[in-house]
Amino acid sequence: MKIYHTNQIRNIVLLGNAGSGKTTLSEDMLYEGGVTHRKGTIQGKNTVSDYNQVEQENLNSVYSSILYTEFTDHKINILDAPGGDEFIGQVIAGFNAADSGMMVINSQNGVEVGTEIHSRYCEYHNMPFVFVVNHLDHEKANFEKTLENIRQNFGNKAVVAQYPVNSGLSFDSIIDVVKMKMYKYNPDKQVTEEFDIPDDQKDQAEQYHNELVEAAAENDESLMETFFEKDTLSEEEMMKGIKEGLAQRGIFPIFCTAAGKGIGVQRLMEFIINSCPAPTERETPKTTDGTEVEFNPEGPVSLFFFKTFNEPHIGDINYFKVMSGTVEEGMDLINATTQGKERLSQIYVTAGKNRQKINKLMAGDIGAAVKLKTTKLNHTLNQSKVSHQFPSIEFPEPKYRTAIKVLNESDEEKLGEELSRIQQIDPTIQVEYSKELRQIILHGQGEHQLNILKWHLDNISKIETEFIPPKIPYRETITKVAQASHRHKKQSGGAGQFGEVYLVIEPHREDAPDPTSYKVNGMDISLNIRDKQEHELEWGGKLIFYNCIVGGAIDAKFMPAVLKGIMEKMENGPLTGSYARDIRVAVYDGKMHPVDSNEVSFKTAGRAAFEKAFKDANPKIMEPIYRIEVLVPSDRMGDVMSDLQGRRAMVEGMDSERGFEKIKAKVPLAEMHKYSTSLGSLTGGRATYTMKFSEYQQVPPEIQEKLIKEFEAQKEEEKG
Ligand SMILES: Nc1nc2c(ncn2[C@@H]2O[C@H](COP(=O)(O)OP(=O)(O)O)[C@@H](O)[C@H]2O)c(=O)[nH]1
Ligand SMILES: [Mg+2]
What we know:
Alpha-Beta Plaits, binds magnesium ion, 16 helices, binds guanosine-5'-diphosphate
């Protein structure tokens, strides 16, 4: 394969809703470029991109694949990412390698939630993109409605570069208002031929052409002047305007295709080469310390790894973008994160699972390496002269959780290893070994994503596992002052035990002054604070411990044991065994025995006194509350709102944005179980949401009662 220079490289990411035709389009692009000689189909389970068994069983992309095609002395690297909301991590990784996006739209459906989500990420990453209106050969294809829909959502920056003459089952012709030509597909020769625009299309074509010229002029002052003077632009000026406008996200040109048949694909590739930004035509990438690194093939070699995958019989395959220099096979590089040395004995370009060895790749290009020692996703490898480190890819917060357990205990260790491997491949999955809940919790983007993980465990790793409902990390706290004491005494046989502790507990509030006295249980207790300890609890919140012992009622050497007893109860709360938080305790009196007192006695006394006081202090169970944002098409708003109300949600706001409603609410985690699945079925997969931990709040009384009962029942059961 030829070595392409930086300015002959275009890196594109395919975007759009699942089913819009991204994978089929990539198959067409490889075929048109002569990289493949036979076109695969989704149904035939033989596309270059969807080559994983799990994808073929699902008939849908699950992982992003890195492909390339060659066309008119240029190379187009294609990142074909899955469209489903749950696989957004794969798309985000793609944003870090691509320089422009192709937003594929199914012309039967118009703008879908996947279009909306991906366009929001494009905005965030300042990523230019082209609309590709696809499925135009479908009987229900509707270009006009799709166009209206695009304009509604994206405004006048979306401009027609092409429109179909005859969308529907007999679709074969596209009018291109950049070139002012008609492209007609010849099914016998399987090629697209160029024609003059027929008379009955001239007015329409002129109108779109003028809109395009005006849009092209708008992003460049000198073009704007020319346009005002001459009322038009030359083809060269227009092309310049489109290219600049596209790169600055001032223009989103609209192209037309019927993927699978290849209609419109060659012309789209030509446009990508002529008008989409080369790596050097985007904002210059910055390292974590703010150094700008240009895509200069003469510079020192620096590679950023944006994706890890695991292939049977090969192991990890790591994909990189050449950020600087020209990387050659056999080079020794240094990993900026691990400081480890890596020899790139071989480098590859890939088209799905097909790898081709190549001896060098220039800045801006994309390649893959295998058998690296320590290099993984998000790492940078450098030539010894530099120590660049590119920023890690930001993946979205998880929003779906489930617990997983092995059916055979002997598989436990193997499960751990497999999960950490899967996490590398799909970094939106997080594995939590919760000591508190005594569960392994998987956090991810949705049920389907985690089912695919399960599919891997079942079919590839051969570990039998089961998903079980995840427990909720409740907390316990108190709401008023309470006093208690406990005498621990044991004198039967051997050495005796004796310890007695008096204490007062109270809710802890930040910035509250230290207590001086309490009136509680009909007593006046005045405090003389000798020592104060503030403990930040691992599980959130605080415990403040005051030693107010006077006259040596408890020897100072036993106070740590008293605290230890209290801490034990904080870790295993009196109501439901959950962690307790935000409490202050003043130990103000006690008693010792000259022979029998020891640490164990005071620990036991401290724990018991604390538990008694806790139960008298009007204790409450607290639950984690999440802040969620739901994005839903306006026509489904009512259903989604009433569902949220059933989940004890507190709606905090609503916004209309580009044909979608955004609902902001706070919802208890306990009510979010399988939310992504129910939201999907409520809206026909047309909505999405994000969630983020907000705070702990008291649960309503009836739920508290229910939780306590459940805990008591469970304790009984354990006693047996
Ligand atoms: N008729 C027709 N079918 C298409 C077109 N593009 C894709 N398809 C079919 O639509 C389905 C989804 O396509 P796929 O490429 O997997 O979409 P992706 O999820 O965006 O990758 C498959 O069954 C394709 O064969 C098109 O332009 N016309
Ligand atoms: Mg796909």
